[in-house]
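re: ur question from earlier - yeah i can do the single chain one, its not a big deal. heres the input i used so u can compare w yours
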Amino acid sequence: MKRDEELRQQFFQRVMDALSNPTRTEILQLLSKSERELSFTEIKKELGIRNNAALSHHLNKLQRACLIKQIEELGDPQTTNDPYRSFYSMTSFGKALLPYLQSIQDTIKQVGPILDKALVAAFSSI
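and the output i got, formated as tokens:
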């Protein structure tokens, strides 16, 4: 039982880590709005990400948190410049979690001015 709880806690931390980055939440929102899987190149272009390694890192974090899945496809090398392609889509867990993420973001927007005042007050006394 204790091991199960440790695994749940590790998974929770992995999900929170994945959701803590604005680029990763943008990827989730992009995939959630798409009616089909999106390729690595499509995600890169849509979000204006220039660095392949950075996008790979973000996608890997989301996959490790079970929020997205990768579908690999091998095309015909005779008809395409990029015969090996990866496509991404939301998992059912990612889809289920997305409304909660949106709710948290909405709440933060609502309390933002209150938070700003509290932070200014807290740090002005230091």
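Helices lie at 2-19, 22-33, 40-47, 52-64, 92-124. not sure if urs matches, ping me
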